[in-house]
Each structure stands twice: as C-alpha cells, then as structure tokens.
Amino acid sequence: MEHFVNPCIHFIQKQLQERGFKKVVLGLSGGIDSAVVATLATLALGSENVRVLLMPSLSSNEEHFNDALNLAHSLELKSKIIQLAPFQQHFAKQEAMDFSGSGKDMENIDINQKIRMGNFCARIRMALLYDCANVDNALVLGTSNKSEILLGYGTIFGDLAYAINPIGGLYKTQIFALALALNVPQKIIAKKPSADLFANQSDEADLGYDYTHIDAFLRAFEKLGGIQATQHKEREHIKHKLKNAGFEHNMIESLSARVWNNAFKRTKPTILELEHEA
Length: 278
Description:
Blueprint: H1 2-19, E1 23-27, H2 32-45, E2 50-54, H3 62-74, E3 78-81, H4 85-94, H5 103-106, H6 111-136, E4 138-140, H7 146-151, H8 172-181, H9 186-189, H10 203-207, H11 211-223, H12 232-244, H13 249-261
Parallel strand pairs: 1-2, 1-4, 2-3
Helix pairs in contact: 1-2, 2-8, 4-6, 11-13
C-alpha cells in the first residue's frame, strides 16, 4: 500500500517545511482514523515531534480511551489527558439540560441534547488542540476521512477544523487498507467506526449504511459530478443515473441529501470584498 503511505508521509513533511513548522499535534480517540494519522505523523516526523491529546468526555467509551493510550505508548508519543467533564457540566448547567454530570445521565437526555453536547465536545477538543499547538509551535493535524467530509459527518469548527489533513482525500474503506499497511493494532481496526459523540453511538447506524456501500455510492456520485451539482434539474439527472447504476432509492435520497445539504461545511466562510476607492 505504498501508493497510500508514501504520499501521506510526503504530504506531512512538505506542508511542515513550507509553513516553517517542525511539530504537529492531534487528538487521539482510539478510533482508526486518528490511529492512522498518528502513525503517519510518527513515520514522517519522528515521535519526538508528534504530540497527542486524549480528551475523553463523560460518555466516551473507556475501551476507546485505553486503545488510544496504548497506541500513544507504543508509538512513544508525548501525550496529555484532558477530561472534558468540567466543560460539559458548566455547559449543561448554563443551558438547563436534564443532566447532572455523570456518564449514566447522558443516556437519559434526548437526542437533540446529545447532539448538542457531542458538538460542544468536538469544538472544545479543537480549542484545546489549537491551544496546545500555540504552546508547542506546532500544526494541528486533521483526522477526518473523505467519506465523512463529503457527507458532512463532522462538526464544523470542531473535528472538521485543522491546519492540514493527510487522510482527507481517502475514503473510509481506504483508511482500513492504510491501517493494515501501517500495522495499526488489529483491535482498533476491528472496531465499529464511531465518532464517540455519545454512548453507543455508531457511524454506520447514524448514516444508515455500512462504509463499503457508502463509499461505493460516493465514488459513483463523485464520478457523475454530483458534488458540484447545484441546480435542481442537474441533481435530479444525477439521481436518475445513480438509480440506473443500481443504487436503491432510499440510499440515493439519503446520502445525496447529506452531501448537498452539508456543502457549507466544506467551504470557507464567505467574505464581503469591497471595492477600494480610487
């Protein structure tokens, strides 16, 4: 899998050289994406130039945390653990959420509050990463894959915020292949993908399909020009072609809507440019 590994390593090295940095920092969750990025960064820069933050929330899976900690140790990375519980408790109190501050209580709040809390945690994590980057004079590495980015399956200004991202051009199924090539622990590879936003949360359950089928759809969608399609007539034409390609109606409607409705997450903020006076 050198056609994945070497370009990713070269990308990290080149970006740091061009930007005048020597170090990187990333959040290590215990999932496959951050494990792959941590391993790539270590190969590219050496363990002494890679720092990882472990930032478990009240609802984080303890197994994921332990896997992240073990990987940091095996890669000999400098790591720091920051508990998000105090941030969550203050946020919940301020917003009058039905949540007294324990992981168990998180299971009892409604889905909208779970999503709010999950997004809040994602943004707090990124704030902590950028603070660490400022202290260490480092760049923040992103850990979002292409499948997540296209579907908008991430938190804007949370996990979708970073300086550079070495895996953002790779579909989730390619990440699994890359993880195998990098000898990422099998325990991490074998897990069900999860953003760990709340207890028992699963990517594939949220999206309604497994990543093998999702990526097959996204490849076809991208090839047909679906990502750039903005007009209703054009989009309906693309959906018709997808149906002819064998994709079922519900998948076409669900996943294409995710890509189009979340396009704002993939674009830079729009800035008003005023004409200069003569």
